[in-house]
Design brief:
- The chain is of the alpha/beta class and 539 residues long.
- It folds into 3 domains: 29 residues, no CATH class; 100 residues, no CATH class; 267 residues, 3-Layer(aba) Sandwich (Rossmann fold).
- The C terminus is likely disordered.
- The chain contains 14 helices and 16 strands.
- 38% of the residues lie in helices and 17% in strands.
- Strands 11-10-12-13-9-14-15-16 form an 8-stranded mixed β-sheet, sandwiched between helices. It has a 4-stranded antiparallel β-sheet with strand order 1-2-4-3, with helices on one face. Strands 5-8 form a two-stranded antiparallel ribbon.
- It is elongated.
- GO terms for molecular function: ATP binding; DNA binding.
- This is FtsK domain-containing protein.
- Keywords: ATP-binding, Membrane, Nucleotide-binding, Transmembrane, Transmembrane helix.
- InterPro entries: FtsK_dom, P-loop_NTPase.
Length: 539
């Protein structure tokens, strides 16, 4: 029996060519439409005027009383008769009718004002006066900023939104302003955010060479993105979504019955990752647990996950017993045993990979599957184990953090700002991918991210809203996809179904205890670890 050929899927290049052809066709059609409009503009104007004259005549006839309609018809018929009998009467009447129609059909839209109106000019003048102390000095012979000066010289471009507030502004500033200092920039940005209108996010672009500051109002990030399967490659994790001008990539997302292309913040892990581990900070209710749940659901598609929940709120109960979930620990003893096993597993993988490379063989299959260690509020375990006289679980993270990239082990830690000082030095040093969720001060953002964002943080933000920075890259605005606990009564039906559809099948009953603890792994030769681990890490 002959098989029907499968439909060929368009490659990336062919899809790009198709999009280019569609864009050119649209541009050609738009150009043809504009040309036709220019050619037919007189006819369109006369037709519009005839329609308006006919409407005016109809209204006049309706408003005329019935007892006066007869004389009016007689007068109109007399005028038509005179026009017909007069020399060149019909021609002159047609010319007069076309002229009247052209006059009535003209575009009556008033021209847009060249400059700002009175209220807008007052706003710009207020901004100018507020910037005078920051952009002026006593020794300037020709100051650009002075009290009572001309704001038109300082503001190159200005646009306003529908509410009358500033939407886009290009500001000139003198060359002696220290635009390379973060404190000087922060003072100006804080002033502009307060004077231009609170409750909005502003993006500040400093052009140090041209002495220009561009202020742009950012649109709110979408908060209706539900948990779903993202179109990503193995080793790619979607942390959230950002502005379209910040990244070069978009992902097709489902919004109910429609689809949109949204720019994501993609975190790459694995052997060639420069930021193999992640740290998320925030206040209670900021959405850090939602971020970890989203990461865990994406990680289970290609690897195994081990979760240690220090909060003890049952945020990850939906993952217990699922395929690929090694353990979900909420007690200090279980967390210690699980992290001890994770350290031994990292060591075992390093030794196995090093021996395989020395023998010229590919790495063993059991070392290629990614292992994810997800810790929510490990500082709670630190305090509990210290009270019981046990080992700090964070000390067991040194091996996965230092050598996890070579062993396909990824560590994700979420902590609250109130307990940030309880994080170990290993966690601080080796988590180069950073996320801050919820309201945060500029000092907190700079401390966690290592650089200030180019936008003004808001005091009130929705859950899952914050900033992300991968290594030494730029700081992105971030909105985490909605991934709530499906067992929570406050979760909506749509979000509960979206998360439940991503959960792997349950292979172990949730109340069944494992036959042996995770720490009961096969003994590992630890003597040659240092040399072999260094060789595996360097390769």
């Amino acid at each position: 029996m002959a098989r029907r050929p499968l439909p060929r899927i368009l490659s990336k290049d062919s899809a790009q060519i198709a999009r280019t052809q569609i864009a050119r066709s649209r541009e050609l059609a738009r150009t043809a439409a504009d040309s036709a409009t220019d050619v037919l503009h007189p006819l369109i104007t006369v037709s519009r005027g005839l329609r308006r004259l006919a409407s005016a005549g109809r209204r006049r006839w309706v408003e005329t009383p019935k007892d006066k309609r007869g004389p009016l018809l007689f007068l109109a018929a007399s005028v038509v008769l005179v026009v017909v009998l007069a020399p060149y009467g019909p021609l002159l009447a047609a010319i007069a009718l076309m002229a009247a129609a052209a006059w009535q059909g003209r575009d009556r839209t008033p021209p847009a004002p060249d400059g700002p109106d009175e209220s807008q000019a007052e706003r710009l003048r207020s901004l100018y006066e507020a910037l005078v102390p920051y952009f002026s000095t006593d020794g300037d012979p020709a100051p650009l900023y002075a009290h009572g000066g001309e704001w038109e010289k300082a503001f190159d471009t200005h646009e306003f939104d529908d509410t009358g507030r500033v939407g886009h502004l290009v500001i000139r500033y003198p060359a002696y302003f220290p635009d390379g200092e973060g404190e000087a920039r922060a003072r100006v940005e804080q002033l502009l955010a307060a004077k231009a209108g609170r409750g909005r996010e502003y993006h500040f672009a400093w052009d140090e060479e041209g002495n220009r500051l561009t202020v742009t109002v950012l649109a709110p990030l979408p908060t209706d993105i539900a948990a779903q399967r993202f179109v990503t490659a193995p080793g790619e994790t979607v942390l959230g979504f950002t502005d379209p001008t910040e990244v070069q990539r978009t992902l097709p997302l489902s919004y109910g019955d429609e689809q949109r292309d949204t720019p994501p913040v993609v975190w790459r892990t694995g052997l060639r990752s420069t930021e193999p581990h992640l740290l998320a900070m925030g206040h209670p209710g900021s959405g850090t647990s939602t971020l970890l749940r989203s990461i865990a659901l994406q990680a289970l598609q290609y690897g195994d996950v081990l979760i240690a929940d220090g909060g003890g709120t049952g945020e990850y109960a939906c993952l217990i017993g699922r395929d690929g979930v090694l353990a979900v620990e909420c007690a200090p003893a279980g967390a210690l045993a699980s992290l001890e096993w994770a350290a031994q597993e990292t060591e075992r993988r390093l030794v196995a990979i090093n021996r395989a490379r020395q023998a010229g063989d590919p790495p063993p299959e059991d070392t290629r599957r990614p292992l994810w260690l997800i810790l929510d509020r490990p500082s709670v375990f630190t305090h509990l184990t210290a009270a019981e006289g046990r080992q700090d679980p964070q000390t067991l993270l040194q091996m996965p953090l230092r050598h996890g990239r070579a062993a396909n082990v990824t560590v994700v830690v979420a902590e609250q700002f109130e307990s940030a000082e309880a994080l170990s030095d290993a966690v601080r040093q080796h988590t180069r991918a950073r996320v801050v969720l919820g309201p945060a001060s500029p000092e907190q953002l700079r401390t966690v991210l290592g650089a200030p964002p180019h936008t003004t943080p808001l005091a009130q933000v929705p859950p899952g809203r914050g900033y992300a920075r991968l290594g030494t890259g730029p700081v992105h605005r971030l909105q985490v996809p909605s991934t709530p606990d499906p067992y929570d009564d406050a979760t909506g039906d749509a979000d509960r179904q979206a998360v439940s559809a991503l959960l792997p099948p349950r292979t172990t009953p949730a109340d069944a205890a494992p036959a042996e603890p995770l720490g009961a792994a096969a003994p590992v030769e630890t003597a040659p670890l240092a040399a072999e681990a260094m060789a595996a890490e360097s390769s």
